[in-house]
């Protein structure tokens, strides 16, 4: 397959037939390919020169990819393999047909309450699987969540490569590797991420699912970041106000005031739902 990006950043895997470039970012090229068993897979080819990496960083990346691949959870796009060939670091993942949740919400900005809460629960449980093996997502957002043809969700684009981007000079150590609409206040201050950082992004997604837009918006990056840090947590409309404690627990400005785990998120959601006789539709 001929493509300008692959000419600049070649990837030679003899047993795989490269079919189509699906997406390209500053850091990687995403390619649809046919595996030796004739199944379609997705290959993420990173743009940095991985041959310059220290061995322990490369080993950590490969081990974390392997650990994620062992998680048997339908809410995660499963890594199949990862490796290094001619300086090119790659990850092979299962191919999940469908559209991103971001695209889905642009077509249907107000899903039913039942659907919104179902999606939120699926995202939370999948995130919990990642946290259960000591990893973080670090870039949780609607464009990193796929909606399958049966409307179930799958998380992708885990932040395994963050350390590698710093080590190869693709990203400064003080640079924030996430999306401004989903960034937690502590990350803006340069604090290291932890599970609660992911939970803040989860809260942004919940608000987006319930209301139809993000809790903090601005055409100015500096103003947007200021809103995350200083603007009070927005109130849900009356018809969804029962879920305000969940929003408050996820979007708390200080991580110590936030819900501390995906398990606590699920428990609070169950408590709220228990007190609501019937979830009305929008």
TrEMBL record:
Gene3D superfamilies: Transferase(Phosphotransferase) domain 1. GO terms for molecular function: protein serine/threonine kinase activity. Its EC number is 2.7.11.1. Keywords: ATP-binding, Kinase, Nucleotide-binding, Serine/threonine-protein kinase, Transferase. Pfam families: Pkinase. Coiled coil: none annotated. It catalyses: L-seryl-[protein] + ATP = O-phospho-L-seryl-[protein] + ADP + H(+); L-threonyl-[protein] + ATP = O-phospho-L-threonyl-[protein] + ADP + H(+). Residues 16-282 form the Protein kinase domain. It is an enzyme of class 2 (transferase). InterPro entries: Kinase-like_dom_sf (IPR011009), NEK_Ser/Thr_kinase_NIMA (IPR051131), Prot_kinase_dom (IPR000719), Ser/Thr_kinase_AS (IPR008271). PANTHER family: CAMK FAMILY PROTEIN KINASE, SERINE_THREONINE-PROTEIN KINASE NEK1. This is non-specific serine/threonine protein kinase. It comes from Thiothrix lacustris.
